[in-house]
């Protein structure tokens, strides 16, 4: 899709991949709504790119309600939703504070589902739109110390597959961004936990894990929206891990080919 004169909402836009996606979307002529908890950071970026900054804690439904209302009043509709916000909860699952894993589920998975549900009906009605969901190699290769984080990322992958089936025939696209560690402070925090760091080192020796540059991930994500690509998978050398997980999804699509995704198709004419 053409990004010029579209409205793009990016979560986790105060730094890292989210900030760079926001900047690159703006370079393409889009009006970007930047969403994050750090109000000062997104306000600065919004001024630089001519976007709109809305501070929001996506763990709270009331904050999401307010976000949606502000988008409707200040921007109008959203053409592209980028669910990028996320947090790690690396550590020993048995001793981790339960609030940590609750927050991880709320931000990584629940907010992705909630925002998609809020903005997709308008896209479907206009028959124009795209949803980007950012996941991780942890979705298919969970290490010690990553139980909850990996579960949320696997959930995003399966949610996107189901969403794609629901959106069949609507002209609304989806992109699943599957990436290994990105060269950010969050990635450094993850590998600082010894068991996770040791597993990451082992994967790196086989060439399946590498620290990606954030601008590269942002570039391929924006390009995927423009080209309506269903996946961004980085690094390329890890394709086999993603492919193994993708096989049953593709088989399911083949098996149900021709089955309508719209419930109204099954309503009997009783007149």
Describe the structure.
The structure is a single chain. With 271 residues, the protein is an alpha/beta fold. It has a single domain (7-257), classed as NAD(P)-binding Rossmann-like Domain (Rossmann fold, 3-Layer(aba) Sandwich). Helices cover 50% and strands 14% of the residues. It has helices at 16-27, 39-49, 61-74, 98-126, 147-166, 185-191, 194-205, 214-227, 239-255; strands at 7-11, 31-36, 52-55, 80-83, 129-136, 172-179, 231-234. Strands 3-2-1-4-5-6-7 form a seven-stranded parallel beta sheet, sandwiched between helices. α1 (16-27) crosses α8 and α4 packs parallel to α5. The longest helix is centred in the middle third of the chain and has 29 residues, at 98-126. The chain is globular, with a radius of gyration of 19 Å. The protein starts with 6 loop residues before the first strand and ends in a 16-residue tail after the last helix.
Features:
alpha/beta; 7 strands; 271 residues; Rossmann fold; seven-stranded parallel β-sheet; 9 helices
Low-confidence stretches: none
Order of helices and strands: EHEHEHEHEHEHHHEH
For CATH, the homologous superfamily is named as NAD(P)-binding Rossmann-like Domain
Helical content band: 40-55%
- CATH fold type: Rossmann fold
Characterize the main sheet. 7 strands, parallel
N-to-C terminal Cα separation, in Å?
Answer: 41 Å
Q: What proportion of the residues form beta strands (DSSP E)?
A: 5-15%
Instruction: Indicate how many domains the architecture comprises.
Output: 1
CATH architect. name:
3-Layer(aba) Sandwich
- Per DSSP, the total helix count is 9
Broad CATH class:
Alpha Beta
Structural class: alpha/beta
- Average pLDDT over all residues: 90
| Total DSSP E strands | 7
Assign an overall shape: globular
Rg (C-alpha, Å)? 19 Å
Strand order, main sheet: write it out: 3-2-1-4-5-6-7
């Amino acid at each position: 899709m053409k990004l010029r004169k579209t409205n793009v909402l990016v979560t986790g836009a105060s730094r890292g991949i989210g900030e760079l996606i926001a900047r690159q979307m703006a370079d393409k002529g889009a009006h970007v709504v930047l969403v994050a908890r750090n109000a000062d950071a997104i306000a600065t970026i919004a001024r630089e790119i001519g976007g709109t900054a809305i501070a929001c804690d996506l763990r709270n439904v009331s904050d999401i309600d307010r976000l949606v209302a502000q988008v409707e009043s200040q921007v109008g509709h959203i053409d592209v939703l980028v669910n990028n916000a996320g947090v790690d909860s690396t550590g020993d699952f048995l001793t981790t504070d339960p609030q940590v894993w609750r927050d991880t589920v709320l931000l990584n998975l629940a907010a992705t589902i909630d925002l998609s549900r809020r903005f997709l009906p308008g896209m479907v009605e206009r028959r124009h739109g795209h949803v980007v969901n950012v996941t991780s190699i942890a979705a298919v290769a969970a290490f010690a110390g990553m139980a909850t984080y990996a579960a949320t990322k696997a959930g995003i992958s399966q949610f996107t597959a189901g969403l794609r089936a629901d959106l069949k025939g609507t002209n609304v696209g989806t992109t699943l961004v599957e990436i290994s560690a990105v060269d950010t402070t969050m990635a450094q925090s993850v590998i600082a936990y010894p068991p996770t760091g040791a597993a990451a080192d082992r994967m790196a020796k086989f060439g399946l894990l590498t620290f990606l540059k954030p601008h590269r991930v942002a570039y391929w994500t924006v390009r995927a929206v423009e080209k309506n690509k269903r996946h961004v998978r980085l690094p390329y050398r890890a394709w086999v891990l993603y492919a193994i997980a993708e096989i049953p999804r593709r088989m399911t699509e083949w098996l149900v080919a021709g089955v309508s995704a719209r419930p109204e198709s099954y309503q009997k004419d009783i007149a």
